[in-house]
Amino acid sequence: MPEKRPRWGFWKCFDRLRQGGRGCNHKRVYRVYCAMRLNLKRKVRRRVLTCERQPLLASSELNRVWALDFMRDTLYDGRSFRTLNVIDGGNREALRIECGTSIPSSRVVRVLGQQVEMFGRPEAIRLDNGPELTAEAFVDWAERSGVKLLFIQPGKPNQNALIERFNSSFRQELNRPPTSP
Length: 181
What we know:
Layout: H1 10-19, H2 26-35, E1 65-74, E2 80-88, E3 94-100, H3 105-119, E4 124-127, H4 136-145, E5 148-151, H5 161-175
Parallel strand pairs: 1-4, 4-5
Antiparallel strand pairs: 1-2, 2-3
């Protein structure tokens, strides 16, 4: 069986043996599987660091540092949607909440361009390493606009604590049942 299908994993081979009427212990089958050198190496995706990381510096000045993050949720019918939340780090005010089923980097650039027209250009934007935010279109927009990108370290959401706190409050307010009058 493995000669015909070399890409099958161990558990699939084991299940097919059991379905075929061969009652074998899984440990014994695994020893034979490994002895035949059928065990496949797992591909590990390595994350490429694009920019150097910056420590969290809280600013009390308005329009100096914006924080940006995505939030995902599911509708009652099972479809998922995302929100792009942009807040000002000076007063923690939500500047924009963009909703959609898909928010690619081109849409992020368009939204931030509108925010710059409305509120002025920030000195920096603190964000995580999502694919939309490390895309070439977004990084090019930041360079053209003169906005410094402050990436947080992967797996350290507390380095962008302002937006994470906003996301938590936003999620609680949306999921709260309506009060009766």
